[in-house]
Amino acid sequence: RAKELGGDNYKFYTRAMREQLGERVQIESALRRALERHEFVLYYQPQVDIGTGRIVGMEALIRWQHPEMGMVAPARFIPLAEETGMILQMGAWVLRSACQQLRTWQCEGRRNLRVAVNVSARQMAEQGFVGSVADTLGEAGIEPCCLELELTESLVMNDVEHAVTVMHELKRLGVKLAIDDFGTGYSSLAHLKRFAIDVLKIDQAFVRDLTVDPDDAAIVTTIIALAANLNLEVISEGVETLDQLSFLREHGCHQMQGYYFSRPVPAVAFGAVLAENEAQLAAGGTVPLGVA
Ligand code: C2E
Ligand code: MG
Ligand code: MG
Ligand code: MG
Questions:
Q1: Where is the EAL domain (predicted)?
Q2: Ligand 1 pocket: which of 118, 206, 235, 265 to mutate (most atoms within 8 A of CB)
Q3: How far is the CA of 94 from the centre of ligand 2 (A)?
């Protein structure tokens, strides 16, 4: 197509293409450098069982501690990491760090904790992904059932047949699988039936206006019912207020994650969040109040 536009345009087009390529190489090397210089850190956000008031797990969320830009949110670099393929090394690092951190907390006596890790499409598609998950678990010394992998609908729909195969292999390994941002993607109920998943994570977009928007309320209660009927666990993300919490509890969703409980925090601070939760439970509390 560029050639049809004539000589000058052709040159312009190829230069633009070259620049784009250069930019990609730059981004890729910036991400690689960041990995080598240990500029990535994991933050952890608690997942709470509102029935018992106990923190049952946490989601690991990556941050880039950039020397000049400061703390960079994943939305700003995950898509680039996916595009350049750096997500493979980054994802492997996330998985290893999260498993090692969980092991540390387990050794400190925090049993029955699980860690949720986000997985991207490129990782799922990679040959040997399941084997590398098994190796990482073995090296960290944690039980497969303590690891939950969060997959998105779009990731799975990318290549349904392959995803279904990998999900069943992961399931056989014993790890838990969750569908993240559930309700925002394109998977059909027919697909859902074939996925070897354990958990539906209700997207925060539906939770936000839950108590004022009847449509969101209907969607959320429908997802909760769907999970119950399919024998899946259900967890809500983005819970910020007591009203949202009450609605969700009344409608049968007992696992929650959101700023109401805690923002994602570094590992050391998360240790304090866990200690606080233990203290609240010991004092007879059931609903952990905001600690953020
Ligand atoms: P996600 O997996 O759906 O993670 C939930 C996001 O919602 C997180 O944003 C979290 O900080 C935010 N959040 C939690 N509670 C609340 C709340 O009450 N209110 C609001 N408004 N937001 C809340 P974050 O950490 O910026 O991550 C954004 C996305 O980046 C994640 O969405 C996930 O898709 C991706 N991501 C993060 N870490 C990783 C990673 O290690 N690997 C991969 N592949 N993706 C990651
Ligand atoms: Mg997630
Ligand atoms: Mg999510
Ligand atoms: Mg999200």
A1: 24-278
A2: 118
A3: 13
Listing DSSP states for 132-201 in one string gives HHHHHHHHHT--GGGEEEEEEHHHHHHTHHHHHHHHHHHHHHT-EEEEEEETSS---HHHHHHS--SEEE
The Cα–Cα gap between 273 and 177 comes to 25
Does pLDDT of 292 surpass 50? no
pLDDT attached to residue 291? 44
Q: What is the DSSP letter of 74?
A: G
- DSSP letter, residue 76: G
What pLDDT, in 10s, does the model give residues 212-230? 999 999 999 999 999 999 9
Q: What is the pLDDT of residue 287?
A: 64
Q: Where are the beta strands (DSSP E) in the chain?
A: 40-49, 54-66, 70-72, 114-118, 147-152, 176-182, 199-202, 233-236, 255-256, 265-266
Q: What 8-state DSSP symbol labels residue 258?
A: S
The reply to whether ligand 1 has any atom less than 6 angstroms from the CB of 123 is no
Amino acid at the residue 267: A
DSSP assignment letter at 111: -
Residue with tokens 């540390």: 104
Q: Which of 156, 237, 256, 261 to mutate to test the pocket of ligand 1 (most atoms within 8 A of CB)?
A: 237
Question: pLDDT digit string (tens) for 6-24?
Answer: 445 555 667 776 677 677 7
* CB-ligand 1 contact for 118 (6 Å cutoff): yes
203 Cα: distance to centroid of ligand 4 (angstroms)? 6
**Per this entry, what is the length of the chain?**
292
> Would you say the CB of residue 82 lies under 6 angstroms from ligand 1?
no
Nearest CA to ligand 1 atom 21: 238
Q: Are the CB atoms for 41 and 50 separated by under 8 Å? A: no
